[in-house]
């Protein structure tokens, strides 16, 4: 039982450190303000359903997605030019920033509450 708690603690500490170690949060906030806020919001909780909410997403997933837009593996007329000018450090920073933000829960649909 103790071994399991040690393993769980180690995993949590490693996961928490990965986001912080992955990028400079202040730099990530600056990039979000300059390039991302119009669609995703500085905090990553877009009010517009056309744009995904980035807050609370895994930093590795966000960084991977940006790298795919940058390389052309993932196609999007808006995101490709946004990602094109980012350095690897910039990608890690903005990914860490959005990963560190609290995500919003999806609004409840009153029709599903009736069931």
Largest sheet: none
Range of helix content? 55-70%
CATH architecture descriptor text: Orthogonal Bundle
- The number of helical elements comes to 6
Walk me through the structure:
The chain is mostly helical and 115 residues long. It contains six helices and no strands. Helix 1 packs across helix 5 (88-100), helix 2 (25-40) crosses helix 5 (88-100) and helix 3 (59-71) packs antiparallel against helix 5 (88-100). The protein is globular and about 45 Å long.
Show the helix and strand layout.
Blueprint: H1 2-22, H2 25-40, H3 59-71, H4 79-84, H5 88-100, H6 110-113
Briefly summarize what is shown:
By secondary structure, the protein is mainly alpha-helical. The chain has helices at 2-22, 25-40, 59-71, 79-84, 88-100, 110-113.
List keywords for this structure.
115 residues, mainly alpha, Cytochrome Bc1 Complex, Chain D, domain 2, 6 helices, 0% strand, disordered N terminus
